[in-house]
Design a protein that fits this description.
Elements lengths: L6 E7 L6 H12 L5 E7 L6 H7 L3 E6 L13 E2 L1 H6 L4 E4 L5 E4 L2 H9 L9 E5 L3 H13 L2 E6 L6 E3 L5 H6 L2 E4 L25 E4 L8 H7 L4 E3 L2 H15 L2
Parallel strand pairs: 1-2, 1-3, 4-6, 7-8, 7-10, 8-9, 10-11, 11-12
Antiparallel strand pairs: 3-5, 5-6
Helix pairs in contact: 4-5, 4-8
């Protein structure tokens, strides 16, 4: 007898064959006996292909959203949660019973839960490397934690400093350095953000949203100077479970 798929979920992104989400949710559905639930990758070259996925995927109940569509997907949605609206980026979409698309951000929750146990009283300010969709969830979480932050960008921007302005004084003032860019992701594991790693100390936290490889060159460089390091795996698990709760509420 052919099993009828009752609930379909998936990941929206570009070049996502490496994705954590498909394996994670497939294992979850199998181990927790969510019969009839499947998870698949929707790998599209441009966000303009998104409506076709919605149109041609029956029983689709929810999506995760990854690079590079966390911001560009927003105009295609019917509604945003209050927090997703404030953050300006979406990484979770719920398809309602009426077929409406509602966007949420669970990245900020995953990042906050992952960073919080590392924090000590001297961790007052953070540098966020990158200004894309992932950085927005990070910034919102830091706001909730009462940590001041500054964005770092390759180009001059109104609310960000450029990489070439980071120096010893910067590291004195900022005790948490967060890589929210894809630089260093497998297969480009030798790449790393261009910052002066020699100024890391044991008082610094280096946090990389990347989880593959487990220890990026960014983290290795910071670790060599004594910094406490953390990759993005726990963040991903926390945000994935939050997404599952959103889809089922």
């Amino acid at each position: 007898m052919i099993e009828v798929v009752r609930k379909r979920f998936g990941l929206l992104g570009r070049n996502i064959h490496y994705s954590f989400s498909k394996g994670y949710f497939t294992d979850k559905f199998n181990s927790e006996n969510f019969e009839g639930c499947t998870y698949e990758n929707f790998d599209i070259p441009e966000i303009t292909a998104f409506p076709e996925i919605i149109k041609n995927t029956p029983n689709l109940k929810g999506l995760n959203v990854t690079i590079p569509y966390k911001e560009t997907v927003i105009p295609f949605l019917d509604k945003l949660s209050k927090k997703a609206e404030l953050i300006g980026a979406v990484n979770t979409i719920k398809i309602t019973k009426k077929g409406k698309l509602k966007g949420y951000n669970t990245d900020y929750y995953g990042f906050k839960k992952s960073l919080e146990p590392l924090l000590q009283p001297h961790h007052k300010k953070a540098l966020i490397l990158g200004t894309g969709g992932a950085s927005k969830g990070v910034a919102y979480a830091l706001d909730e934690l009462g940590i001041l932050y500054t964005f770092v960008s390759r180009e001059a921007k109104e609310n960000a400093i450029e990489y070439n302005r980071i120096n010893a004084t910067t590291f004195d003032n900022y005790q948490i350095i967060i890589n929210s860019t894809p630089v260093g992701t497998s297969p480009n594991i030798d790449a790393f953000p261009s910052i002066p790693y020699e100024y890391f100390t044991e008082k610094h936290i280096a946090f990389d949203l990347i989880y593959n490889p487990e220890e990026t060159q960014f983290l290795k460089n910071a670790k060599a100077r004594g910094a406490r390091i953390k990759n993005g795996l726990d963040m991903l698990i926390f945000q994935a479970e939050k997404a599952w709760a959103v889809w089922n509420k």
